[in-house]
Amino acid sequence: MENHLNRPEIKQAMGGTPAWDVRFSNTLLSRFLYAAVPVMNQDKIIGVARLAISLTRIQSTIQAMNQTLLWISIAAILLVIGLAFWISEYTVRPIHQLTGAMAQVGSRDFSTSPILDRKDEIGTLSRSFQKMSDDLRLQFLELETEQAKLFAVLNAMTDGVVIADREGIVQLLNPAASLLFNIQEPQALGHTLTEALRHHQIVDLWKASRTSGEQRNLTLDLSVEKLYMQVIVTPLKDAMQGASLLLFQDLTRIRRLETVRQDFISNVSHELRTPLAAVKSLAETLQDGALEDPSAGKRFLSLMEKEIDTMTQLVQELLELSRIESGKAPFQMRPARVDSMVTQAVDRMRHQAERAGLDISTEIPGDIPEVNMDVDRVSQFMLNLLHNAIKFTPPNGHITVSVSLIEKAVQIVIRDTGVGIAREDLSRVFERFYKADRARSGGGTGLGLSIARHIIEAHGGRISVESQQGEGSTFFVTLPL
Fold first, then answer.
1. What count of Cα atoms within 13 Å lies in the side-chain half-sphere of residue 56?
2. 330-379 per-position pLDDT tens digit
3. In this structure, are residues 346 and 360 in contact, taking their beta carbons and an 8 Å threshold?
4. What pLDDT sits at residue 439?
5. How many degrees, rounded to 5, is the angle at CA 249 between CA 247 and CA 250?
6. CATH number for position 263
7. Ramachandran sector of residue 402 (left: φ over 0; alpha: ψ -120 to 50; beta: rest)
8. pLDDT at position 301, please?
9. 438 lies in which domain range?
10. Which residues, including other chains, have CB under 8 Å from residue 448's CB and lie 6 or more apart?
11. Which pLDDT value is given to residue 50?
């Protein structure tokens, strides 16, 4: 057996120091790890203990351990990844849900409800967000309700409303303002007041109000548009900073009514003044001695009675017109034949027409159905129209009354060959007290055609006139079936 005392590890161990060495064993044909330690007895080295281990076995063991560590590391990594994914899902996903819900709330969509049943901070955040979302939803509902009310009021207003910012750019325009200025909302919004309203006086008023910070108003008489309006500009100090509210009140109808009222008073005064002056003059004449002459006194009293009858007729017609306009006039509606009513009215006026040298005729078919009407009142306006036709038709003239069925109505047409009505008078012949030039010297109160129009309209019908001066007039009366 080979002597091993010369081996490095043994030599070093014999010196009292543990040692090791790796070398190839020629005997076993393999690399070995040799470890040697001294054997001591009472502090004396009595020998050496050596251990030899094959490196192949160690490497196999190390390889097995490395493989085990590798699998443990892989498992640990997978576990960490899984744990990280779970933590991400548990933490990040709710945050994404809240972020998405916030985006929906930002776009006024309150349908989402991301309540997370968690006890941590995310759960607290979710509950806080849900409460905020509910509060916002209620506030938006209230705002939408108030906005709907505001737009309902603005849309129903007869006054025009325009809101402009401090630069004069139109921000709001209600339908009444659109109608008043003949401009659609898209054409006005985002444009200046000058471009939208096209009235420099209104723009100047807005500028004056903006500069002073006070309410300003102006009354405009727009003769071109036939408008009479009041403009009120009010600064909006609490709402839109620097903005102004422009209110447009159309006073055209009020002014027209005021004109009608003034004309009415003037006409009534005029119509009463003439007969009153005549009565007073006749009374003074009687007081001056005419009573001593029986024939003259009787003639003057007859003239006074005639003037009093004129005033009485005027008062009666005024009362009748007032009752009809206020809806207080009683109408006895019943089915009646229009042809019979027209025939009777013509027969009543035939003698008067013949005395005036006029020919009067009728064109009435036999298939005219009954109409629901107040016979007495319709007969009244028929007699009035026939009386006017006779009064304003020269001798040898002709008057024709025809009845026909048109659509769902019966039409009565009274045509004469009289003096006619001037074009400028046609649109006003149905106004109270209005007398065309042809009628200035013809007497009458000027209320007959106005009463006739109101009677026809109370029946749901309509009345119109066509005329050419010097050739005659044609009145059309339509009564619904």
1. 6
2. 778 889 899 899 999 999 899 889 999 999 999 988 888 889 988 888 88
3. yes
4. 44
5. 145
6. 1.10.287.130
7. beta
8. 82
9. 331-480
10. 317, 381, 384, 387, 388
11. 83
Kindly state whether residue 61 falls inside one of the protein's structural domains. no
Q: Which residues contact 240 (CB under 8 A, 6 or more apart)?
A: 163, 165, 171
C-alpha–C-alpha distance, residues 405 and 257, integer Å: 37
CA 6 → CA 15, 72, 185, distances in Å?
13, 45, 115
User: Is 62 inside a domain boundary?
Assistant: no
Q: Cβ-count burial of 308 within 10 angstroms (0-12 exposed, 13-18 middle, 19+ buried)?
A: middle
Looking at the structure, do residues 338 and 476 belong to the same domain, yes or no?
yes
Positions of the chain with pLDDT lower than 70, given as ranges: 1-2, 90, 100, 105-120, 223-225, 239-240, 260, 264, 267, 270-271, 290-291, 313, 317, 321, 324-328, 432-446
Report the distance separating Cα 454 and Cα 470, nearest Å.
Answer: 28
Q: What is the pTM of this model?
A: 0.47
CB contact set of 353 (below 8 Å; sequence gap of 6+): 359, 360, 386, 390, 399
Q: What is the C-alpha separation between 412 and 406, in angstroms, rounded?
A: 10
